[in-house]
Amino acid sequence: SGSAAGAGAGMWAKGLWALLAALRAGWCLLPQAGYLHPDEFFQSPEVMAGDILNLQVYYPWEFLSSSPCRTVVFPLMTSGVTYWVIKSLQQLDICSSCINSYTLLVSPRLLFTMFSFILDYSVYRLAPFWEADPWKALVLLAGSYVTLVFYTRTFTNALEGLLFALLMVLVSSRKPDGSSAEPTSSPLVGIVTTAGFFNRPTFLAFALMPLLYWAGLIVDSQKGIKTVINHFLKLVLCACFTAIVFVTADTFYFTAMGLDNLYSIQKSSLFDVIGQLNEKMVVTPFNFLSYNLNPHNLALHGSHPRVTHFTVNGTMLFGILHILAIGAGFKMLKKYICQLIRVKSYCHGSSGLLAHSEGNPTLLLFYFVPLAFLSLFSHQEPRFLIPLILPLVLFSTSQNRAVKWKHIIIIFNVLGALLFGCLHQGGLIPCLLHLEQLMHSPESSNHPRHYTLLFAHTYMPPRSLLNIKKRDTHVEVIDMAGSEEETLCRTVEQRANNFTCNDCHVFVIIPGTVRATITKCGVSFKNETLIFPHLSMEDPPQIPFLFSGNWRSQLGLYILQLDRDQ
């Protein structure tokens, strides 16, 4: 009966994982409305939409030839490939309107969602190695809102997590008798480590423990010194080759500054091209590090206490699993200190969160060592920690640590998915999709109009989702960010009083929580569209209003059309 119950539980876990996997793909296609951070657009899709689809976009400073800090290889391999596919489908007349705001949003996300199953594969492969149940670990992974929301977005942090997972798979291998096997994947370890470094130089913090573990296995394999040197030589040679590929691609791109200018380079002689590349060699990780190691530069993006990752961000992303890991970490630390000073009488176990903390401490090191290194920087955002979900899930599933907290885990992840997947800046993407349809409607196409879109107190709007060609000049986007009332009113009044344009349409996009501000500007509106829900943490709703009849306004984003006749 015990084996039958175990088989039943296994089937239940497999079915639940399949359901959560379908939810991950389906929610991506729906699409998810929440807007997590501008980097999910401006470090990949926005740049590629400008280069490949020739759309009006905003190029972030990291992708300018004067300050290249991001490799172009991964944006080209992800958003670039998806945009090239939909462009080709439209050119071949397979679909007449393949390029629209929906496909521009969803196609790169869908590719990232497909890539996210590398995490699931890694967990399935690694769970037996780390004495965890594979299907329970997969359910914990697939049910996490970090997987459902963050890993389906076009973040470099998501790619960093996938490369970290692959590196853990490469360094973890067992013989049939259960003992650790000598690694045979030195070339792949070198390639993955270098690719991760070029994607985000912080990858070295995640790679440190797997690389030390890999080196320890090689040294402990009791093979000759020639075999050890052979492994390291393979790793270094493949790492160098991968670095050359990235440097060449980045130098070529930033010398040309976008794919539009490659044609002029192609017309040059081979020697001229090689000369240009040698003069302007671009090594983006070094530029990234030189910028981020300057405390003044980091302060421009926000400074946080050094313990933010440890106390706030880890808990925000992983909830009780992070707290359990901290408890287990302290208990193991106490145990090793006691063994070190040989005072065993004080080393008896405790209850609560610290219970069941025995086990392999290596997984805890895989979790806490990267967290410690990332905590050295003053700029600390939650998404920087999303690669740590893999060792945390494996550690939490081994010895069934997470089972007794399953109800808390479920509630935490449902709330996290709703907050970040639906509510957080959740009106801005639907707003852009609505405006794209408005500006490409048959009425607008037959009678060309000029549109001014003024965004205030929202995240930076990705221009690419408006689907406006670079040659078109009939759309102007003004991002007022968090401007003060006086600056906002002055800009709105200037647009309202611009009588040189007869067929101009001015739209102001503003959260409901600052809707009252715009009424003080002395202008009137003829159309109001409320997009619900939209939660701005920079301009949060006042609690009393949420219990009034006006609560939808507080959790909405307004599209206000100026009445210029007034």
TrEMBL record:
Ranges annotated as spanning the membrane: 158-174, 203-220, 232-254, 310-330, 410-435
Name of the coding gene: PIGZ
Keyword Endoplasmic reticulum: yes
A GO cellular-component term linked to this record: endoplasmic reticulum membrane
Compartments it resides in: Endoplasmic reticulum membrane
Main enzyme class: transferase
Keyword Transmembrane: yes
Membrane topology category: Multi-pass membrane protein
Molecular function terms, GO-annotated: alpha-1,2-mannosyltransferase activity
Any Pfam family hit: Glyco_transf_22
The organism's place on the tree of life at top rank: Eukaryota
Protein name in UniProt: Mannosyltransferase
PANTHER family, alphabetized: GLYCOSYLTRANSFERASE, GPI MANNOSYLTRANSFERASE 4
